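Sample intake sheet
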Amino acid sequence: MGYPIVSRSSPRQTQAAIVRVLPDLSDIGSIPPMNALEILRETIRILRSDPSTFMSILVLLIFPVSAAMLSNFLISQPVVGAVGRSMLLLAISCGLPPARFLKQTCQHLAGTIVSSAICFPFLITFLLLARACIAYSVACNYASKKVVPTEFMGMVRRIKGRLLCTYIWVCAAILGCLYDIHCTRFAVCSSFSFLGYPPEITIYPALLTVMGFSVAYAHTIIVCNLANVISVLEDASGFRALLRAVCLVRGQTQAGLLMFLGTAIGLAFVEGLFEHRVKTLSYGDGSSRIWEGPLLVLMYSFVVLVDSMMSAVFYFTCVSSSMGVLNENGLVLEELEKLSSDLTAVE
């Protein structure tokens, strides 16, 4: 059962209302604040209310990107190996031991970096369009309106510059966060190595540093996902969308982190299955790849779809929470003004 939409009509709320670019969706009200599990339930409710639309998005837009990301058919393995060796040499120069875990980690990171770079045209077209369509469809669901493809395409033509600008800023924010993580790890490892600690000891502060910055990375991903939704549903883009996302996510960090954790576990699980069951021939004659490969790509696409829908629902809950704080502040201000006028009348 879905959450009721509460309409708002007070003057203070009207002044604080968000200027939306979507046509005929101005009657979207507020949604009660939800935790991560409730956001997931609400996402499933929305998915069940209009499965044809979201399944079409999955098959037409998300599935090709997932296939390219998982199969790595566009990636040159020698390039991945060269990048992995460079990262391994850099890690060893910081004082880390050349353990098998470190080699596997560097190889995995190299594959992720090269895959993201090669598949960037897919990400900036298919995936960006899919996220915009998902945000639009969720907004239509809350407005009790039917998704109109022609209306959506008209909206995309108007806001395509805003979408691209926001996506570039999002990529810059993620790269900046990763750069800070690696620079800090390099500084910590170099410091312990300079003090004479052996590599077996140096690895522990490095792991603690990475674990600490993982929270910052997760928070960055949450803000970036929210900024992508904002660029679709509000008249904001680029750096303004990121600032707006930072303001909205205040007080909702726990739900966002749990959402990120669930999505990361789901994607990692499917990637591991694809690596073991499709890429690596560890059993039989490999004939099962014919049906296991597309099935795992479909599972990966479904996780991406649910994550994008949860980001859109999370946006509405954050807006509702933000509007609630504004209303409380407005009531407090009205009480103070009334008290001040009463004191003036007594004097």
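Comment: The CA atoms of residues 9 and 15 lie 10 Å apart. DSSP finds eleven helices and no strands in the chain.
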